[in-house]
Write a structure and sequence with these properties.
disordered N terminus; Rossmann fold; 696 residues; 40% helix; seven-stranded mixed β-sheet; globular; alpha/beta; 26 helices
């Protein structure tokens, strides 16, 4: 593939090495640049503007339109500091057309000196009507000489951090562009077919647009220059993910062929029939397990779609072949529920399931560990306790990871290393966050994806109601009436991300309030700070029906299955993410009774809060909600990309740029096949040493 410019700039080194700096960037500046993920000249070139300002022409004060930022050249007439308590710096300025006031609430002595009477300035800001006439609040300004030339391009405004001024950032980025060439690996014929500029041209245009360009046009991410950047980024992502996929497939794994004895026995005694989606997903998993290279499959589906049952069938396939399988969950509550469910299903067919968690007594834990190490127990369920050093699983052939995005890269790697030397276990990841198929195929290009897109028959639809905080007393009466008829209720406390202690206090206050308001009902409390045995005892009492109202934090977001609970109240619902609200709502509607989810919200609602509540009120399909969540939050946060080890996309949007994703996917396969050195250059440019995150 042809070159269109000088050789590519050196790839970003690992973070620790990067803070030493490079020519023109000392250690102190490098430390600041590292905070915005810039570790080399190559990273500087790819650090693109958020927006632009037009400083290529001057506007007379009299011609400035209110509310529109403009640049004026003025002379300072006077400058003074007003006395306390509202100490301000006030400068009166003028040009040929009139006068204005510059007002600074926060200022430095150096600024006061620059604003001395007689100084010539270029000021940039919005002019508005003030108490003493036209004024600019905190305008950007700099002293200039008479006749000083204007910039020849629009002024870029970059993402930055404290201690790193825009002027300094512009200077070092301009230097990086001058001294480091960029190579375009795309063939010219493809660029012409797509009507895209060469990569070096696109970068130069975005860093320094000509004054003839409309700011709206260049800020629109649909501009051909932006499209070229996004295609390159998507290409780097797809190459990295495909390479990770290929590397995994090259490893050896235990072949687990179909034997069906235990599988048939389980299906025969289950009180329900598998859905078509469950059968399809298990067939896909079974085909992978029969292979002698490790499965890497994501099983995703809506709340209540039956992922645990599919996981149980997969684990049975290992047991039928005399090998071990484990299921790891992120919380003790969820892990314990999986354990109880698997035990109920598998004990009747003669299989024991081991339970491993940090809360187990030392003696019982050691006995279980000894039996697992001896291969006497084939199936185990647990929390991250499964990956701790004492746990030996000599026959491990399958590892199931539930809510996989909640585990870090290292944790999943540690689980993988529990198997036999020279043999990688099959990996089945499960996620209850439904992801639109196109998005899943893009973000998880290194995984095979199975989707459970239908719910088991008999699931009762959940009615969602939005209630303002002022009607709280009505909601409490509704809880009382539901419990009086024999049902149970959840009361979920507000999400307070900035303070776990404050969230705990709120939960305790809600518990006290409901205990007082509902004296004839048993109210329980569960939160993350409780000891595991206390938490388990409370949950067991709720499952048994001894507790009628369960006050909880988001620890119940995943995994609590109580068919008799038909009412859920979520306080300050506007604070929760859309996926969280859907997960929580999925805790009811599991029995035969009509179920209701009441979302209490506080006013005034933000635009985002309003959009979330509207989406959760109007939709019950998890995949539709997922699409809305993606629209509101963006793909990085939606997927949990940092936790999953997938490089974040800075500029491309997997939904909006779906056409580019398809082009990048096909091109990645072509480049990997025909020009692997080109693939190296593209991934180095975008990820440097960070592509190693994809190992997990």
């Amino acid at each position: 593939m042809p070159d269109t410019a000088a050789p590519a700039a050196p790839a970003a080194p690992p973070k620790k090495a990067a803070v030493r700096g490079w020519p023109g960037v000392g250690p102190q500046l490098a430390e600041r640049l590292a905070k915005i993920d810039v570790f080399s000249p190559a990273d500087l070139i790819l650090h693109l503007p958020l927006r632009y300002e037009d400083e290529t022409h001057l506007t007379l004060l009299a011609d400035v339109r209110p509310g529109v930022a403009a640049q004026c050249e003025v002379e300072v007439l006077s400058c003074e500091v007003t006395p306390p308590p509202r100490r301000q710096l006030i400068a009166r300025v003028a040009d040929a057309s009139g006068e204005a006031v510059l007002r600074f609430m926060n200022f430095y002595p150096s600024q006061q000196k620059q604003l001395a009477a007689g100084a010539r300035l270029r000021i940039f800001g919005e002019l508005r009507d003030g108490f003493f006439g036209a004024e600019m609040i905190h305008p950007r300004f700099r002293p200039v000489a008479a006749g000083e030339p204007l910039p020849e391009s629009l002024t870029p405004i970059y993402p930055t951090t404290a201690g790193l001024a825009q002027s300094a950032l512009r200077k070092i980025i301009a230097g990086a562009l001058r001294h480091n060439g960029v190579r375009d690996e795309l063939p010219e014929a493809l660029r012409q077919r797509l009507a895209l500029p060469a990569l070096p041209d696109a970068l130069r245009l975005l860093h320094a647009p000509p004054p003839s360009m409309s700011i709206m046009d260049i800020e629109d991410r649909g501009h051909p220059a932006w499209q070229r950047i996004k295609l390159d980024e998507l290409l780097a992502q797809q190459i990295s993910l495909r390479r990770a996929y290929a590397a995994r497939r090259a490893k050896n794994a235990a072949s687990l062929p179909r034997r069906d004895s235990l599988t048939r026995a389980l299906l025969a005694q289950l009180p329900f029939a598998l859905t078509g989606a469950q059968r399809r997903a298990f067939d896909e998993i079974a085909a992978d397990l029969a292979s002698d290279h490790p499965m890497q499959r994501l099983l995703q589906g809506d709340v209540g779609s039956g992922k645990t049952c599919v996981a149980a069938l997969a684990m049975l396939r290992a047991a039928e072949n005399g090998r071990q399988a484990v299921l790891m969950a992120p919380t003790e509550i969820l892990a314990e529920q999986h354990y109880r469910k698997l035990t109920d299903w598998l004990t009747p067919i003669g299989l024991e399931v081991a339970w491993l968690s940090g809360s187990r007594k030392k003696k019982a834990r050691e006995a279980t560990l000894a039996r697992l190490a001896a291969g006497e127990i084939l199936l185990a369920v647990g929390t991250h306790a499964l990956i701790e050093d004492p746990v030996t699983l000599p026959g491990l052939a399958l590892a199931v990871v539930d809510e996989q995005h909640r585990f870090g890269v290292r944790q999943r790697l540690a689980l993988r290393e529990k198997g036999r030397a020279g043999e990688a276990p099959h990996m089945l990841m499960m996620s209850a966050t439904p992801i639109p198929r196109t998005l899943a195929m893009s973000y998880y290009a290194d995984l095979d994806v199975s989707v459970l897109d239908e719910l088991p028959p008999g699931r009762t639809p959940v009615v969602t109601k939005l209630v303002a905080e002022a009607r709280r007393e009505e909601v409490i009466r509704r809880v009382h009436d539901a419990c009086a008829t024999g049902r149970q209720a959840y009361w979920v406390c507000p999400l307070i991300e900035e303070s776990e202690a404050l969230q705990l206090k709120t939960a305790e206050e809600s518990y006290a309030m409901l205990s007082a308001a509902l004296p004839d009902l048993t109210v329980g409390l569960v939160h993350g700070r409780l000891k595991n045995d206390e938490k388990s005892a409370t949950m067991a009492a709720f499952v048994a029906g001894d507790i009628k109202v369960l006050v909880a934090t988001t620890v119940i977001e995943v995994g609590v299955d109580v068919p008799n609970a038909s009412l859920m109240v979520i306080e300050h619902a506007e604070r929760f993410g859309l996926a969280q609200l859907h997960q929580l709502r999925g805790r009811v509607g599991r029995g035969v009774h009509e179920s209701v989810c009441i979302l209490i919200y506080a006013q005034p609602l933000s635009q985002t809060g309003r959009e979330r509540l509207k989406a959760i009120y109007e939709h019950t399909d998890g995949f539709v909600i997922a699409r809305e969540d993606l629209r509101i939050r963006g793909p990085g946060e939606f997927i949990g990309a940092r936790q999953s080890g997938v490089p974040l996309l800075r500029y491309a949007d997997l939904e909006e740029d779906a056409a580019l994703v398809e082009i990048a996917r096909g091109l990645a396969e072509e480049i990997l096949r025909d020009a692997p050195q080109v693939a190296d250059a593209i991934t180095a440019r975008w990820f440097g040493g960070r592509a190693a995150l994809l190992k997990a």
